[in-house]
Structures are given as C-alpha cells and as structure tokens.
C-alpha cells in the first residue's frame, strides 16, 4: 500500500516537471486578464511576447514544448542575447521578458520548479537591461508651462485643437485620469452637486470617486453645452458603442490616442520653452502627481486618486533624494532656531 502511494506521488511529481511552460504562461496571462488583474492591451502584448519566446525555442531547439524541468538562467540569458542581436530596442526586450518571469514566479508558487532555480532566474535574469539615464528629464510640466499650455486654448485656430487641450487639462483637473478613462467617461459618471466623478476605472476595474478641481467642472460645462454626445463626455466614442466588446474598445483606444498624441506634440512646440519630451495624457497625470506631492498632499490620498500602490507612487513620482534632503534642510532651518550666544552653564 505504501509502495503504491509512493509511486503515485512520484508520478505526480514527474507530471508537474513535464508541464509545458509556454502553455502554462499563456493560461496564466489569460486568467489574469479574465480576473481584471491586467488590462486587455497588456494581455495582448504579453501573449505576443510569450508566443515570440515559443518561436525562438522552435527555431533553436526544434521543440514546440518546454517542460518546466528545463527552465534555467542560461536559457533566458541566451534569449536576451538573441533579442539584442536583432533590431530590438533594449526597452522592448524588458517587456518581452516580463510575462515570462511572471510565469516563472507563478510556477514556483505552484511548486512546479525548484526554489534555487527560480531565485537565479528572477534575481540574475531579471536584471534590467536598459536603466533610466541619470540625466533624463522628468516628463512633467512646471506650473508656468501648465498655465502657458492652458492659455493656448484662446490662441489656436481650430476648434478640434481646443478640444485636445480640454482633454489634456481635464486629465490634470481630474487628478491624473488616464486616457482610457477619459475615452470611456460618461455623463452619468459626473456627480454635479458634489463636483466629483464616480467611475469604474479601466485599469484595475476599480470603482473610484474622483474630486474635480474648478477647471475640470468648467470644461465639463463647456462640453455639456456643445451637446456633441449624449452618452460619452468627450465624444471620442459613438453613443451606441459597446464597452463590453473588449477587443474593439482596445482598438479604439489605441487609434484615438494616436490622434491625440499627434496634436499634443504639435501644441508642445508652441510653448516658449522647448520640451525635452513629447506631450501625452501621461504627462498630465505625472504633472498632477508631482505637484500634489510638492504641495504636501497626503501620499495615501494621492495613491488612491491615481489608483496606484504607494510604493509605486514613490518610485515613479517622488523627487530625487538630493532634492528631498535640500527641502528638508529648509524646513528644519525654519523650525529650529540656533542661537550661538547661548552657552552651557
């Protein structure tokens, strides 16, 4: 009896070790999308990355299956070298590896792979190929640049251009609302009497209450008077659009965002100081986050408004440490007054 149990356990272990890693990664990616842990666009990008890795394996090993028992740091290092030898930007290689390492970690959690192997892959193989340059400018506008951009509304020639300015500024006034949520913002999400938006946000599928700054309310009133669309605020989607059609929504989001980016880039050239980056809705989001932090708004509140983890908030938007120390000295010097004439008796 004991021998039979032992053999059954051995067979189970053997079956686990023979699990196809590619299929395992694809199923994990699909499950994360179905559970709302990742956006549909992320699901598509990660699926493409996993399939590209499979094509590499077929090309190099002639095998269409990769058992988890064959996972190793050397395998991923060879794949990175292969990608670097092709016309790939280093940033894109990081994106290709991300869903693979996510699957490796989940395989470890499912006890499909030994812990020491996983540690090597995730610690050494996960090392960032392309780190942010130290001298790279932050993609945000100063208060002066933001005001100058807002004033372009009254000088540009075309009504469509003014609409793009409105969308950018509304993102800022609505606490850094993403383009995907501007795209799907409906009039029934606006709570006029409380001057706020209540919306199920696209990323993370979380219902959030967003307070509106006065400028945001003014933009909404302006679009309400235009009567372009009785359902969607910014008239980017047709009134009968089916938001449950995820594939079509993702397609519309990408094409509409490209149109917006083109116009915002042209508007960026009209500012008196040349920007070292292209304007986008993310710039509006980043600008809101940094200005809110600098003005002393509670980090917990900011993280809730942006729907982002506090640790990620600090990594992405916090000032460089040398600037924090400089500001800290200024604050302490204004609080602690030292009188050199005082002596110990």
Q: What is the 3D form?
A: elongated
Q: Gap between N and C termini, in Å?
A: 87 Å
Helix count?
15
Give a count of the beta strands, DSSP E runs of length 2 or more: 3
Structural class computed from helices and strand pairing:
mainly alpha
Strand percentage, roughly? under 5%
Task: Determine Rg (CA atoms, Å).
Answer: 26 Å
Could you name the ranges where pLDDT drops below 50 across 5 or more consecutive residues? 128-137, 320-328, 335-340
Share of helix, binned:
55-70%
Calculate the mean pLDDT score and round it: 80
The main β sheet shows up as: 3 strands, antiparallel
Q: Widest sheet: strand order?
A: 1-2-3
Write down the secondary-structure element order: HHHHHHHHHEEEHHHHHH
Fill in the keyword field for this structure.
single chain, 345 residues, mainly alpha, three-stranded antiparallel sheet, 15 helices, 3 strands, 59% helix, 3% strand
Account of the protein in words:
It contains 15 helices and 3 strands. The protein has 345 residues and is mainly alpha-helical. Helix 8 (159-173) runs parallel beside helix 12. The termini are far apart.
Question: Topology, please?
Answer:
Layout: H1 2-17, H2 21-34, H3 40-61, H4 73-84, H5 90-109, H6 115-125, H7 143-151, H8 159-173, H9 179-183, E1 190-191, E2 196-200, E3 207-211, H10 214-226, H11 246-268, H12 281-294, H13 299-306, H14 310-317, H15 321-335
Antiparallel strand pairs: 1-2, 2-3
């Amino acid at each position: 009896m004991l021998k039979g149990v032992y053999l059954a356990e051995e067979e189970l272990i053997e079956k686990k070790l023979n699990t196809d890693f590619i299929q395992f990664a694809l199923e994990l990616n699909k499950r994360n999308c179905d559970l709302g842990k990742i956006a549909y666009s992320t699901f598509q990008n990660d699926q493409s990355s996993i399939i590209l890795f499979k094509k590499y394996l077929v090309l190099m090993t002639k095998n269409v299956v990769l058992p988890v028992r064959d996972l190793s740091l050397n395998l991923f290092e060879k794949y990175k070298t292969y990608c670097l030898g092709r016309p790939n930007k280093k940033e894109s290689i990081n994106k290709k590896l991300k869903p693979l390492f996510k699957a490796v970690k989940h395989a470890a959690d499912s006890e499909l792979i030994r812990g020491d192997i996983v540690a090597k892959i995730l610690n050494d193989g996960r090392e960032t190929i392309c780190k942010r340059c130290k001298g790279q400018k932050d993609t945000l506008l100063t208060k002066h640049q933001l005001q100058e951009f807002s004033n372009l509304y009254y000088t540009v020639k075309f009504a469509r251009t003014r609409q793009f300015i409105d969308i950018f500024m509304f993102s800022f006034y609505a606490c850094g609302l993403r383009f995907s949520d501007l795209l799907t913002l409906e009039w029934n999400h606006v709570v006029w009497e409380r001057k706020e938006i209540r919306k199920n946000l696209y990323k993370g599928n979380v219902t959030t209450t967003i307070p509106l700054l006065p400028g945001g309310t003014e933009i909404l009133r302006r679009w309400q008077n235009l009567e372009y669309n009785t359902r969607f605020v910014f008239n980017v989607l047709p009134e009968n659009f089916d938001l449950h059609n995820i594939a079509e929504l993702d397609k519309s989001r990408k094409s509409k965002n490209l149109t917006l980016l083109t116009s915002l880039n042209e508007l960026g050239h009209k500012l008196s100081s040349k920007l070292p980056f292209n304007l986008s809705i993310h710039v509006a989001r980043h600008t809101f986050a940094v200005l809110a932090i600098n003005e002393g708004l509670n980090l917990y509140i900011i993280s809730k408004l942006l729907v982002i983890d506090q640790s990620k908030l600090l990594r992405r938007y916090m000032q460089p440490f040398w600037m924090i120390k400089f500001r800290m000295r200024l604050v302490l010097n204004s609080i602690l007054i030292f009188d050199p004439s005082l002596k110990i008796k």
